[in-house]
Design brief:
This protein is mostly helical. Helix content is 51%, strand content 6%. It has a two-stranded antiparallel ribbon with strand order 1-2. It is elongated and about 70 Å long.
């Protein structure tokens, strides 16, 4: 039985789209780090081989170095974060979130908006690189 241990996902729940992305790139990492493809495959055999090796190296560096180095404005430790406060709903056991003053925490809300735009950009980048990996999957063998 084959088991794929995804090193980049922690314990707990992960949505399937995230598992798919991380699983696919774990296959690439295992291929590069465990199978030593540069020692086994003649990557100069064809233009397709040369292109595939270039993509393998590029995608591996992106996954191992550039993607983990992504930074968010929310990572700033100096950023003043609004407290989470709840109030009981009269006549109920339920609580409601008390919305913090947007003016008082303006920097936080601006950082939150910038983070949202970055997440959209990162999602597109993840998708584009997953497509690139799928395009060269036929070369991931030794």
């Amino acid at each position: 039985m084959k088991v794929l241990k995804i090193q980049t996902l922690g314990t707990g729940w992960h949505d399937r789209d995230e598992i798919l992305l991380h699983g696919a790139f774990q296959v690439l990492v295992d291929f590069v780090e465990k199978e030593s493809p540069e020692k086994v495959i003649d990557w100069n055999a064809t233009e397709s081989h040369r292109h595939a090796l270039s993509e393998i190296k590029s995608l591996y560096r992106w996954w191992k170095e550039r993607r983990p180095a992504r930074g968010s404005p929310l990572d700033d430790s100096r950023l003043r974060r609004p407290p989470l406060k709840f109030r009981r709903i009269p006549g109920s056991e339920m609580c409601d979130l008390v919305r913090p003053d947007r003016r008082k925490y303006g920097a936080y809300y601006r950082a939150l908006e910038r983070h949202g735009r970055l997440e959209d950009k990162w999602l597109e980048e993840d998708q584009r690189n997953l497509h690139r990996l799928i395009e060269i999957r036929g070369f991931l063998w030794t």
